[in-house]
Automatic annotation (TrEMBL):
It comes from the Bacteria. Pfam families: Methyltransf_11 (PF08241). InterPro entries: Methyltransf_11, SAM-dependent_MTases_sf. This is Methyltransferase type 11 domain-containing protein. Gene3D superfamilies: Vaccinia Virus protein VP39. Residues 49-141 form the Methyltransferase type domain.
């Protein structure tokens, strides 16, 4: 049993529980894990997009590490406003799209990003929105990283194996790991890195 797409969007626009944007300022270990796994793949001029960036903790961590061309998509207006207050330097430089990914992704340029990444976001993409996976492939120039819970099923979780999702869409998986990500991000999460072919 899952929420309808409409109800799911409404939930993420303004969650009043443990998913409130204020709580996503915490979790720097997740951001460090992402950065560590990017080392050696990207120069500091890389164009980077996070889908579902929330308050921008991950983007700010990359920004502070020297990545200047960072963008994010986020459905919650509250989270994007909090991003501006929490990380004003990031907010000045980054492009933040306050929109459901479904409404913005078709407007983004083909092969526009050296890296597109998601952390705990695709797991909340409704089955009716799975067409966005093709769009993710279209806008990715080189690498895609997914850090997603591939097992949990709740009203808001849609479990998928992202290797099976993205390899048929023009990617080859170059790296997968579950052990460290389990300890840092969560028990049934998998880190996957894909290269566009
Ligand atoms: C579990 S949180 C993860 C946030 C962030 N990636 C992190 O790791 O801290 C999921 C995020 O995805 C956003 N989100 C969920 N569905 C979305 C959609 N359809 N379009 C854009 N953002 C969405 C939520 O608002 C929330 O910020």
């Amino acid at each position: 049993m899952h929420l309808s797409r409409h109800a799911l969007h409404n939930y993420w626009r303004d969650p009043m529980d443990g998913n409130r944007a204020d709580y996503y300022i915490e979790g720097i270990e997740n951001s460090k894990f992402l950065l560590e796994n990017m080392k050696g793949y990207f120069d500091l001029h890389a164009n980077i997009l996070e889908i579902g960036c929330n308050v921008g903790r991950n983007l700010n961590h990359l920004f502070q590490a020297g990545y200047q061309n960072v963008s994010g998509i986020e459905i919650s207006n509250y989270a994007t406003e909090l991003l501006k207050k929490t990380y004003p330097d990031l907010a000045q430089k980054a492009t933040i799209y306050n929109s459901p990914v479904e409404e913005i992704i078709t407007t983004l340029p083909e092969n526009g990003y050296d890296l597109v990444y998601t952390m705990a976001v695709l797991e909340h993409i409704h089955t009716e929105s799975e067409w966005i996976f093709h769009e993710i492939s279209r806008i990715t120039k080189t690498y895609l990283i997914t850090i997603e819970d591939e097992v949990a099923t709740t009203l808001r979780h849609f479990p998928r194996n992202y290797k099976e999702v993205f390899e048929p869409l023009g990617f080859v998986q170059v790296y997968e790991e579950a052990e460290r990500v389990k300890k840092i991000v969560g028990g049934t999460f998998v880190f996957r890195m894909f290269k566009k072919i």
